[in-house]
Amino acid sequence: MSALYLISPPRIGPDFADALAAALDAGAVSAFQLRLKDAAEDDICRAVAALMPVVQARDVAFILNDRADLAVRLGCDGAHLGQEDLPKGGVKAARALLRNASLGVTCHDSRHLAMEAAEAGADYVAFGAFFPTATKDAKSHAEIEILAWWSSIMEVPCVAIGGIDAGNCAQLVEAGADFLAVIGAVWHHPDGSAAGVRAMLAAMG
Ligand SMILES: Cc1ncc(COP(=O)(O)OP(=O)(O)O)c(N)n1
Ligand SMILES: Cc1nc(C(=O)O)sc1CCOP(=O)(O)O
Ligand SMILES: [Mg+2]
Question: Which residues bind Mg(2+) (predicted)?
């Protein structure tokens, strides 16, 4: 059984809080990540102030992308850090900075990075990209077997990301992904974000 991890589009407009509320009200979303690429710090802070109450009121974890320092300062539930977002001192230093807040770490297709991250205190490891994605120029391709391998030896949850949609997600669920992280499958769903969440949850079983 996998859970749905929703990530924001890279840029958001003034109506985004309403679209987000509709998406979260459509079904069980476990975590929401604010991922604003190329945004100024002030804009990220304003977005967190507007969106975190919408998310937390629905008992969904609010995760900030890229910035552990801001996640702590703004009281987010956690931060998601890529290998290039980690502070000096790596995952251990990020773990200390975040105190009780959750820490997720991108591990691409690397078993070694994932083992290191888990041992240093990550709350989840993320593997990807599993499928072609139009959302970003993904640097790595992960094979589905890595999910089964991880789940068979580790307790730390794993997230699958990259090009996941209602048509291809069943094999990731089957392989043992704890969370499926999606952007396009929800925000670019032809019938809107609520339909996107419903389609994902139905396909995830
Ligand atoms: C859940 C989840 N997994 C992976 C990523 C990718 O993080 P990163 O490698 O730092 O790339 P950017 O998202 O910063 O472009 C993620 N954000 N969330
Ligand atoms: C943000 C991100 N990280 C990836 C990785 O492989 O680490 S793939 C990706 C994009 C995910 O968006 P979509 O669900 O639209 O494909
Ligand atoms: Mg990053």
Answer: 66, 85
Nearest to 124 by CA among 56, 171, 164, 77: 77
Fold of 3-204: TIM Barrel (3.20.20)
Which residue ranges have their beta carbon within 6 Å of ligand 1? 5, 7, 33, 35, 65-66, 80, 82, 85, 104, 106, 126, 128, 136, 159, 161, 181
Q: Whose CA is nearest to atom 18 of ligand 1?
A: 80
Would the CA dihedral through 100, 105, 165, 52 be positive or negative? positive
- The pTM for the full model equals 0.99
What is the C-alpha to C-alpha distance for residues 137 and 44, in angstroms, rounded to an integer?
A: 22
* Distance from the alpha carbon of residue 107 to the mean position of ligand 1, in angstroms: 9
The structural domains of the chain, with segments of one domain joined by +, span: 3-204
What is the per-residue pLDDT across 132-167, written as a single tens digit (0 to 9) for each? 999 999 989 999 999 999 999 999 999 999 999 999
Is residue 186 within 8 A of residue 193, CB to CB? The reply is yes
**Predicted ipTM > 0.95:** yes
